[in-house]
Structures are given as structure tokens and as C-alpha cells.
Amino acid sequence: MRLSVRTFFESSGYIEVDTPILVVSPGTETYLRYFETAWFDHRQKPIRRYLRSSPEIHMKQLLSESLPKIFQIAPCFRNYGEFSDWHHPEFALLEWYESNLSFENFMQQTEDFLQYSANFMETHLDHCGIDSSFCKKKISLHRLTVSDAFHEFVGISLEDGDPSLAAKAVDKGILSVRPGDDFETAFFKILLECVEPNIARIGPTILYDYPPSQAALSLVRHGVAKRCEVYIGRIEISNGFEELADPEENKARYFASMEQRRSLGFEIPDLDPHFIDALGKQFPPSCGQALGLDRWLAIICNLPQVGPLIPFRDHFEP
User: Fold this and answer.
1) Structural domain contains residue 82
2) Mean pLDDT for all residues in the chain
3) What is the distance, to the nearest Å, from the Cα of residue 307 to the centroid of all Cα atoms in its chain?
4) Domain containing 136: what range?
5) Tell me: the pLDDT tens digits for 174-222?
6) What is the mean pLDDT of residues 247-253?
7) Is 220 left (phi over 0), alpha (psi -120 to 50) or beta?
8) Interval 133-169: pLDDT, tens
9) Distance from CA of residue 15 to its chain's centroid?
């Protein structure tokens, strides 16, 4: 699988990079939990550090240094309950960025990579006696906006921040939603209960144009966050952005996310100042994708979970 990644991206002029695993800021997501540790300096003073949850922050710094096409196969780490059929505390994340690439072409590039890597793996799986039937299929991603998905599968016109979303969902008989749920809680419950099962029914899908409240570090344009997620069946395998470049808006979103984390009692990493400095230099218009390589390989191999692909996975079991 790693050879297919390198062949695909290097043939398109990408440079493979490495970025730090032990970091000041492991990520900016509200709900992810991190592995916290410490580095002790020569005075034995502990300095807080984390294992990265993604190489995003450092790869964006490389974009600002005139590296227009970069990719990385990155060991990443997420804590607290990340142990199930499709989750593991340590996992391989394929992340790539390209400057001056349109969001539309970026989504097509993601589809092209999935098709290429599946085709590449077919012969290797046959040689190893592994079921390669998935690789024989043509991968054509249905494209569906989040708003259209809510309208088609739920019968709700989605409005960002709508305080009555929970009530509308209850009226539609969506069992997981409670009348007192806030917008974000109701939004994700509807995704899980109604949208994802229907996506699995129609086939591989790229869900895109999210409500601005779900932008993370993606650009908001024409009232939607330019964010996309690829689903194979009910498994989400990637999360991509047309990247937000403005340093002040990045800082504002970071602090808003950290305030939510504080209210939840989660760890609060420091903001990496080098990240903001890089955005203030010559950060180009760009798109970036983070793809769970273990998940994608498990799907290609027709496995029901990532476990068989994780070396020494039993070391994490209680």
C-alpha cells in the first residue's frame, strides 16, 4: 500500500516529507483527545509536549516555504477510547497538500488516488491469496452536499446553528435526538442515524460543503465550509479541506475550539506560534486531505476491521 501511495504522488510531482511526532500542539479539533507527555530540559524542568494527532500544523508550515506539493505517511495518535473495530490509538495517516488546486479538482484527485491504489493492490492481494474483489470495482464517488443529504435522507432543510434542529428531528422520528439537544449534537446524531446509512446504500460517496460551524480549519465560501469527507459504506476514511489561510481567523477558530475543550474538561494544548507565523508569510491557496491508511487498506482487503493490519495490536488490549 505504501508503495502505491509513493508511486501515485511522486508521479504527480509531490515531495514526501517528515514532520515532528512530539509536538507543542497536536491538533485543533474540539473533541479529539491527545497523548500528553513531557520533555525535561537540562535543568530537569518539565516542558509539556504531545504526540501528534495529525501532521497538519507542520505540513502547512512547509507549504508556506514554497513547497507546493507535499505528502506524508504519518504515524498518529489519539487517546481515550480509540480502540474498536475501526479505531486504534496509533494509526497511519496519509496526508497531502497541494497549492493552487481548486476544491473541485481536489475532490477528483482524491477519487483518482483511491482508484489508483485499489488497482495497484489487486495483483499484490492475488499473489498473497487475499480476496481482491473490491479492487476489481470501479471507484466512482457520488458527490453529495451536506445540505442535500439532509434534505434527501431526512426531509429537513439544514440551516447552520438552527436552534430548532432537534425539534425538527424529533418530529421526523429520529430516535437518537432529544428535544434539548443543541445544534451540533443534533447535527451529528442525524448524520449517524440517517445520513450515513443512506450513504452506505448508494455506494462510495464524498460528502462536502459543510455548515460553517463545522468548518474546523477549512475556508468558508458562499456560506458553506469547503470541507469534504469520503465514505466507503458507513466508514469515513478521509477528511479534506480547502485550507483557511488567514492567520487571524485561524487563531480565532483555535481559541474557540480550546474554549469548548475547556468546558468539556479536556487538555488545552498551546497554540504553536510557528504555525501562525507561517500563515502570515506567503501561505498559498491550497487544499489538503487526511486519509486513514489503515482503514482504506482494510476496506481494500475486505476486512471487517483494522485490527489484523495493526502490528502488536494486542499490546493495547486491557
Assistant:
1) yes
2) 92
3) 20
4) 2-141+204-316
5) 999 999 999 999 999 999 999 999 999 999 999 999 999 999 999 999 9
6) 90
7) beta
8) 888 889 999 999 999 999 999 999 999 999 999 999 9
9) 21
Convert the pLDDT of each residue in 160-179 to its tens digit.
Answer: 999 999 999 999 999 999 99
- Amino acid sitting at position 263: S
Q: What is the 3-state secondary structure (H, E, C) of the chain?
A: CHHHHHHHHHCCCCEECCCCCEECCCCCCCCCCCEEEEEECCCCCEEEEEECCCCHHHHHHHHCCCCCEEEEEEEEECCCCCCECCECCEEEEEEEEEECCCHHHHHHHHHHHHHHHHHHHHHHHHHCCCCCHHHHCCCCCEEEEHHHHHHHHCCCCCCCCCCCHHHHHHHCCCCCCCCCCCHHHHHHHHHHHHHHHHHHHHCCEEEEEECHHHCCCECEECCEEEEEEEEECCEEEEEEEEECCCHHHHHHHHHHHHHHHHHHCCCCCCCCHHHHHHHCCCCCCEEEEEEEHHHHHHHHCCCCCCHHHCCCHHHHCC
pTM score of the predicted model: 0.93
Strands 69-77 and 22-23: unpaired
- Grid cell at residue 107: 475532490
Q: Is 198 a member of any domain?
A: no
* One-letter identity of residue 50: Y
Residue 284 falls within a domain, yes or no?
A: yes
Q: Which residue has the cell 459543510?
A: 210
Instruction: Give the phi and the psi of residue 76 in degrees, each rounded to 5.
Output: -130, 165
Q: Domain of 298: which CATH number?
A: 3.30.930.10
What burial class does residue 266 get, using C-beta atoms within 10 Å of its C-beta: 0-12 exposed, 13-18 middle, 19+ buried? middle
Q: What is the tally of structural domains in the chain?
A: 1
pLDDT digits (tens, 9 = 90+) for 44-87: 999 999 999 999 999 999 998 889 999 999 999 999 876 788 88
Question: How far apart are alpha carbons 136 and 168 in whole angstroms?
Answer: 42
